[in-house]
Amino acid sequence: MRIFALLLLVTSVNLSAGEPELLKVMTLNVAHARSDGANQLLQSTEKAKSNLWQIVDVMNREKPHVAAFQEIDSNSFWNGRFNHTEFLAAGANYPHHFSGSHIDGDNLQYGTALVSQFALTEQTSIKFRKPFARLGKGFVISTARWPGSDSIDVDIVSVHFDFLTGNQRLKEAVKLIESIKGRSNPRVIMGDLNSEYAAENQLIPLLEDSLGLSTWQPHVDVVTFPKLQKRLDWVLVSQDIEIVSHEVLPDTLSDHQAVVAELRLL
Fold this sequence. Notes:
The chain is an alpha+beta fold. It has a single domain (22-265), classed as Deoxyribonuclease I, Chain A (4-Layer Sandwich), CATH 3.60.10. Helices cover 24% and strands 33% of the residues. It has helices at residues 2-16, 45-62, 84-91, 166-180, 203-211; strands at 23-29, 66-73, 96-105, 108-116, 121-127, 138-145, 153-160, 187-192, 213-215, 233-238, 241-248, 259-265. The strands form 2 sheets. A 6-stranded mixed beta sheet has the order 3-4-2-1-12-11, with helices on one face. A 6-stranded mixed beta sheet has the order 5-6-7-8-10-9. β6 (138-145) and β7 (153-160) form a beta hairpin. The longest helix is centred in the first third of the chain and has 18 residues, at 45-62. The chain is globular. The two termini are 38 Å apart.
């Protein structure tokens, strides 16, 4: 009888092994570690580090599996010439990170990044074509193993689109679509899209239609950029993923609010 019970227990464990868990993600425009200050040029290196420690505290509290950051510096003169992605990863004890410098020159080096509890593979950084009279943007993409799964990988993107014109954002969206459309993994696209839903040029609906994406309650009033009372920061997922929960955090970490979402494989 005891042997039979033991066999039942082993069978039960084997059946549950490799069952996908919820994936928790976070996205934040770091605003060059200036928090809600007027300009990063007006603060010391120690102030930048203090502001980054506040982000570390939120990461420790929320415990996302993967965090996506935008406007995050690698080696810029205006806030200390240190790698902010490495600082956040080390401070929050995340073993894996990847950053892409979409601006690299004139003593500025910054872009987008991913910080992860899981190994990041197939890392790619892509710059968008620089628009006239302003600095360019871009995105990073990497692949990670879905938590609890033995074989399912997910592609995760941290992206930042142009702040000024819808036409430029549309061009950047087309570049993003071209870059990842051929990938077969489930996908999560996070970042500062600088666009509301169904705004000029239908940016987010274009991404949804072209890449088979959806988002959390797109027509509900949600504010992630308090200064303009707009929703500019988004989590988009492929149709094989469900957004179980979505929260805009109240913490003052930047001129943007952080967004946290829990995701489930369908």
